[in-house]
Design brief:
The chain is α/β, with parallel strands linked by helices and 338 residues long. Helices cover 38% and strands 23% of the residues. It has helices at residues 20-26, 33-38, 68-75, 98-108, 124-135, 139-152, 168-180, 198-215, 226-232, 250-255, 260-266, 277-280, 302-307, 327-337; strands spanning 7-16, 42-52, 57-61, 83-88, 91-92, 109-113, 186-190, 218-223, 235-240, 243-248, 281-282, 292-293, 312-317, 320-326. The longest helix has 18 residues, at 198-215. The termini are far apart.
Length: 338
């Protein structure tokens, strides 16, 4: 049986303007973003249908104004949608009362934004415990949970520091710890690392991947950085003018861009760094000899591909041969990178 998606978004529109619902009902089918703008409205989200599975990390990316942040705010109903449906664990969030919506956000959703939003006159411990305080938990319980997540994000020993005494990367860790304190099922992150310098950003990406490996959250992560998307995502949704141009795994987006806009995003990417042995494996062709891991990238297999003489190299996943990788296909990708 197919598992129900954690987030299900169907034919969602978010139109900004004076009377968006009435406008959408009379709008000609196939109206473009520019035509909608000429009518005096803005299509923040344009007929988007997308699902997010449990434990999946969906990265939404696009240029400024593409609609990525607006879409995520629709997921949590920070924006009221103009048309369509959004379900969280099968529940239509548009039907929730204000009280039910607040409970959903408090108990199921964690949010981290680009601006850290820390309370300057509270310590790290007090900042992390703040959402638990808002829940009404007693001081002992919220302190214990706050200490637990502070240790998880690598800030043990800095519990009594104030935000001004921390680096940018450390402040972002406090924001992440605060969002994790409520043990959310769903984690929304809106360009959380974009204000950090490149070295700290890389460090935070490593930390984030470690946390995801431990916690297995359902994550929607927004970025405008394609390299960051490739590094973090199970799937990537690329947006333009409020619409999703393509939503697929990183390797499929790099190998098979669906539109010219997506192709421009991918043209500078070193495909050998993204494409894995699993992507190139052909089930009907097993090959012989020592196998390679399905998760290994072509770049990681470069030495083997150059020096091996086999025409087909077996590919294994979870100890089972899933097919064979044509050595020539791998070498072709390596040469493209050069």
């Amino acid at each position: 049986m197919t598992q129900q998606p954690v987030i299900s978004c169907k034919n969602v529109w978010k139109v900004f303007g004076s009377k968006p619902e009435a406008y959408l009902k009379t709008m000609p089918e196939g109206h473009s973003y520019d035509e909608i703008s000429a009518d005096g409205y803005i299509a923040g989200v344009k007929d988007v249908s997308i699902e997010v599975s449990r434990g999946e990390m969906l990265v939404i990316m696009g240029l400024s104004g593409s609609g990525k942040s607006t879409l995520v705010r629709c997921f949590s109903r920070l924006h009221e949608i103009t048309s369509g449906t959004i379900e969280i664990d099968g529940q239509d969030i548009m039907s929730l009362s204000e009280k039910e919506l607040i409970e959903l956000r408090r108990n199921k959703m964690g949010m981290v934004f680009q601006s850290f939003g820390l309370l300057p006159h509270r310590t790290v411990l007090e900042n992390v415990a703040f959402p638990l305080e808002m829940r009404g938990q007693d001081k002992h319980t919220r302190r214990a949970r706050a200490l637990e997540v502070i240790k998880l994000v690598g800030l043990e020993g800095r519990e009594e520091y104030f935000p001004r005494e921390l680096s940018g990367g450390q402040q972002q860790r406090v924001g992440i710890a605060r969002s994790l304190a409520i043990e959310p099922d769903i984690w929304f992150l809106d360009e959380p690392f974009s204000a950090l310098d490149p070295l700290i950003r890389r460090e935070m990406q490593d930390e984030f991947l470690r946390l995801q490996g431990l916690l297995g959250k359902t994550i929607v992560f927004i970025t405008h950085d394609f390299d960051e998307a490739l590094r973090l995502a199970d799937r990537i949704a690329i947006m333009k003018d409020g619409a999703v141009e393509q939503c697929d795994t990183p390797d499929q987006i790099v190998l098979h861009p669906a539109t010219e806009y997506v192709r421009k995003f991918t043209e500078e990417i070193d495909k050998a760094r993204v494409i894995t042995a699993k992507t190139l494996a052909i089930a009907e062709t097993k090959g012989t000899g020592e196998a390679v891991s399905a998760d290994a990238t072509v770049k990681q297999l470069a030495k083997l591909l150059v020096h091996d003489t086999r025409e087909v190299i077996p590919v294994t996943e979870d100890g089972i041969i899933i097919g064979g990788m044509n050595r020539t296909d791998g070498l072709t990708l390596l040469l493209e990178a050069d």
